[in-house]
Amino acid sequence: MLSQTIQAALNTQVKMEATSSQAYLAMASWADIQPGLTGITSFFYKQSEEERVHELKLIKYINERGGFAVVPPLEQPIITYQSVKRVFEEFLRHEIQVSNSINDLVHQALEEKDYATHNFLQWYVSEQIEEERLARTLNDKLEMIGEDKSGLYLFDRDIMLYRTQLSQD
């Protein structure tokens, strides 16, 4: 059985995962109307789907442990960006925020001696290490590219490869 404080904290994380899904969906939609960004568009649609899976995993865990998972109302995400670089800076900022939230949850679970929740959250800890690494790598590549259109073309073409390569390392 979940304590009320752990249940509340997990529900806060549900909202964060749902917010991430919406943010990445908005990024995908923005990229979708930019000329030639099919790879980036696909990348963010996939990111959005992943975050929804993370949200559902939390919802199921809360309910399985005797709690009540709340489907949260969401604020409108940012829907327009000045550049691809800004989109990926926001992506990294968002992933760092999620990592910090997961770390707080792990700490709370340990403080309350809720080892089942602590164990459950270890998957999220590992996932966030991968997500931050991916976001940092993509930001580094965009920094190297600068304003070079041919570099952006190659980045867009190869973005799904970066995702696959980093998850295998």
Q: Could you provide a short overview of the structure?
A:
With 169 residues, this protein is mostly helical. The chain is 80% helix and 0% strand. One of its GO terms (cellular component) is cytoplasm.
Spell out the blueprint of helices and strands.
Blueprint lengths: L3 H29 L5 H27 L19 H28 L3 H31 L3 H20 L1
Shape: elongated
Tell me the number of strands: 0
Helix content: over 70%
**Could you list the spans in which at least 5 consecutive residues all have pLDDT below 50?**
none
CATH architecture: Up-down Bundle
Q: What is the distance, rounded to the nearest whole angstrom, between the alpha carbons of the first and last residues?
A: 37 Å
Order of helices and strands: HHHHH
| Structural class computed from helices and strand pairing | mainly alpha
Q: Major beta sheet, specifics?
A: none
CATH topology group: Ferritin
* Percent of residues in beta strands: under 5%
Tally of separate helices: 5
CATH class: Mainly Alpha
How many structural domains does the protein architecture include?
Answer: 1
Radius of gyration: 17 Å
**Name of the CATH homologous superfamily:** Ferritin, core subunit, four-helix bundle
Mean pLDDT: 95
